[in-house]
C-alpha cells in the first residue's frame, strides 16, 4: 500500500456493537432514535455519554487492514482478465473469496480474527445485488487491488449506485474544532468522469484539489461536487490517476458524534466507480484569549466578549496554525484594515516568509525563523503544537498590549493555568511579583481540547504622601497620591521642594522619606511593585540674630532666639566715627527695631540667620586738595576743586589739575612727604570727617635708545634715567652683514649730529642714536626655504646695484613655488610673483637674501578617543601644511575622569594641550585624548541605625580596593559581611574581596561608593537549673534582648525534690529579699546579648497537717520522715505502758485520746 500518511487508531469500537444490521443515514447523528448497523440495538438520544465508544479519528484510511495473508488469501486464484476485488461485511465479519473468478469457489467466508474497530468502514448499501459471482450483503464495503502497484483501495460504488461509505467519529469537544479531511480520488477509467462528495453530518464539505494527476486535473479547483478524470482503460490500473483533495470543516462544540461520509454522485456503472484511498484528517482546537476583566481587543482578531458562530460546513473564515496557506483570519480589526490574505511559504534556508495583504492595499512581508513553535495569532491549532503566545510588544505579530486595558492594572502577560479538573482558570489580579512571574507564559503546548489563556494583570501600585506634621502644628494639605503602572517609578508629583520653610511656621521641609522617623530618603527612581507611602521630614528652625556694624566698628556676638519665646535684643556696642547710632534694621525684611527691644516669634531666613544692621546718622565731611609742588618748583594748571558732604557719602577722589615742569603726578597722599595713606584719582572714599590730600610728584622719565639702522645682529642696550641726567654713550653692540660700524648719529641717514661711543649725553625725554655703517660688495643669495631639491645660482653686486632676479630652480615636495621674498615667512618684499621668480632687485648693504615662498597643500588634525565609556566628539582642525594652528578644546566626556591633554599615541602622557599651538604637517595627523582618573572613595558604614559609624578609603575611579575586615562592633549582633545596600539586597563582599571604585557624579562626595555592614542578631539560651532537685526543663533559645516567658509547664513534675514543694524560678540559686520569683506561665526573663542565662528552681519544705485534740497542726513533711523513725523506737518502750493505760480506761469507762494517729493528709 503506497499510502501518503498512516494514522494511528485513537479510539476503539466495541466489538459487541457490530453484530447486527441496520443503517444510519448521513446527517442524523443526533436523531432521537437511531438504528445502529451493529447488533441491532436501539440507542435512544445519542449523546456524549452513550455506551458506544467511537474513535477520535478516521480508522483504516489506507484500507490496508486485510485478512492474514492479504490478497493471496482473499483471492488465491488469478483471473488474468480481471483484477482482484472483494466485499467486506463489517457487521458479520465476512468477505467474498475469489470474487473475480467465476469458477473459483466464490463465496462469503468468515474473516478469522476480524476486528470491526480496526476495519472501521461501513456502507449504506441495502444488499441483495450481484457482486462478482455472489449476492452482496447490506452495509458491505468493496475493496480492490491495483494490478501494477498492489495498492489496496476502496470503491464507493459496491453493488449499488448513489451510495456511501462512512465512519462515526467521537467529536465531543468543549469548543468548536476544525477537522482537515484529505483523501485520494480516482475515476474507474478514461470512459468515465466519476463524481462524489465528502459529507460531515450530512452536509457537503468544500474540498480543494491539492494534487493533480495524469488526466490533467490541476490543483486549485474548489467545490463540493468532486469530479476526477482518468487516462487508463484498465479498471484495475490506476497508477498516476489519483488526484488529492483536502477540505476543512468546523464541528460545533458539544457535538458528541459525527458521521464522516463519502458519497457517490456520478459513477461509471450502477455497480462500479468512484475509487477512494488514503483518507486522513487532522484536528485543530480553538485557542482563545480572554481579557480577564480587561477591555479592548484580544489577539486572533476576535473582539472581547464576542461569541463566534462556528461554520457547520466548510470553514472559509477560520485559520489553522497547521495550515499556513489557509484563508484570512476570523474576527475584525478596530481600524477597518481587514486581512485579505495571510500566507506563509517555506524558504530553502529553513525560514518561512509571511505575506499579509489588507483591505487598504498595504502589504507586509516578514521573515519568520523556524523555532519549532508557531505564532499565537491563529484561531485553531493541532494538539501538541508549540505556540508562541501573542506578545505585548509592538512587534510584527498580530497584537500588542496597547489594544487592551484594565482600570488601575498593567498587562503582565498571559496565564495558562488549569484547575484540578483540567479547566482553564484565570489568575486573580495581584501585585505579588513572584506570583506574576510564576504564572506568565510566553509559550504553551496545545492540548487535545480547546484552550483559553487569560490576561495576567498586575495591580498598579500607589504612592501616597503623608505630611507627617510635627505635633501641635497646622499641617498643610497632603499632595495627591499617585498611581503608576506596575514596575515603574513614581516620580515626585508633590511639588514640594526640600528647604521650603513656608509650609509650617517655624519648620523646614527636608524632603520625602521612607518612614516617619526620617531615617532614609525615598528614591523616586525606584520601580514600584507594591503600594508605598512616603513621609515628609521636618526640622525645627533655629533663629540666630547676627549683628552687623553697618559701617561702624567693633563686634557683637550672635544672639540665639527660639521661635515664640520673647527675648530682648542685645544693646548696641558698635561705634562709628562721625556717625550717631539710631537703632536696628533687618536686612532681609526691612523691619526696624529699637536698641534693646523685646522680640517674640522671630522668624529666620531658611539659612537660619536674621541680619540686624546698625543704623547711623552721618556728620558733615570734606576733601581738601593741595598742589604740594617739589621744592623750588611752581605748580601750574587749573588745580583740583575741593569737595564737601556728609559722613557716609561715597565720593570719588578727584583727578589732578596741576602741572610741574619736569615732573610727573603720581597720586595723592594724606601726608605732604608721601608717607601717609595714598589715594589714586577715581578711587572711592567713604566720607568721615575732613580728608586733606597732597599731590605727589616724581621727576619725569628720560631715556636713550640705540637703533641698529639696518643691523642684522647683536644689540645695544638702552639707557634709562630721568630728565637732565648725564650718561656715557655706549659702545656699538650691533653687527651688520657686509658693513663696518662707523659712528652714532642723531638721524638715521647719518646727516645729523655725530656722536661717538663714550661721549657724554644729557637725557631729555626719549632720544635715539642711529648706527652708521660703511657698505661693501655683497652677494644676492637664493634660499630654497624648505625645498627638497634643485638649486638657484647666486648673483654678485654692490649695495645699490639693480639686478634681474634668477628664475626659481628649487623644488619642494607637496608645495608650489609662488615667488621670491626677503622674508622666509613671505612677509617681506616680494619678487617675481607669477613669473617664476624673475623680477628687479636692488642690492642692499646687507641681507641680500631671497627666499622661495611656497603654497602648501591642505593638512588636517583629527581628534580621536578610544577609551571606554566615552561620549562626545571634537571637530577636526584644518589648514595648510606648515600652518601654525590652535589645538582644539576637548569635546569628549568620560565619567569619573579628567581630561589631561592630547598625545600622538593612544596610551601615553599628553604632549599637547587645548589652546596650544601646532604646526601642521602634510596629510592628516591624529591626536588621541588622554585622561586621568578622578578621586573616588569607598565608605564603610556600620549600618547600626541612628548610631551608625563610617570609615572611608580613598582611591581613584576604576581602581580596585581590597575590602577591609570589619572594624565595627554591635552589641547583640554578629557581623556577617558587607553589602552595597543597607538592607542586604545588593552585592555581597567579604574582607579581602576586590571592590572597583566607580564614577558617580550624584554621590556626595562625588564618586563615592558605600558598603554597609551586615549583622545577624545573636541567639542566646535560657537554661533551667533544678537547684538541688531532680529532672529539668529543656533549654529555650531566643534572640538577644528579647523577653522570654517561663513556660507554664516548667514546674512539677518536670522538676522534683523529695520533701519540698516547687515555688517558682529565680535568677539566683538563693535569691535575696528583693529578688523576684518567676512563676511558670507568667514570669519573664530578659535575654542577654550573647551566651546564656540560667534560672534556678526554688523550693520550700512540704507541709503535712496532723490532727490533735482541739484542732490540727501543720508540720514540715520532712520532719515526719524523721518522726516515724523515732516513733518506732519509742513504741517498743511505750507498749507496756499503753496496755496498762488501756486497762485503766476500761475500768473507768472514759476515753483517753491518743495523739499521733493517721495523717490528715
From TrEMBL:
Residues 297-315 have a biased composition (Polar residues). Residues 334-351 have a biased composition (Basic and acidic residues). Its main location: other. The chain crosses the membrane at residues 1118-1138. It comes from the Bacteria. Residues 292-355 are annotated as: Disordered. One of its GO terms (cellular component) is cell envelope. Residues 1-31 form the signal peptide. Keywords: Membrane, Signal, Transmembrane, Transmembrane helix. Gene3D superfamilies: Listeria-Bacteroides repeat domain (2.60.40.4270). InterPro entries: InlB-like_B-rpt, Listeria/Bacterioides_rpt_sf. It is found in: Cell envelope. NCBIfam families: List_Bact_rpt (TIGR02543). This is InlB B-repeat-containing protein. It comes from Bifidobacterium longum. The lineage of its organism: Bacteria, Bacillati, Actinomycetota, Actinomycetes, Bifidobacteriales.
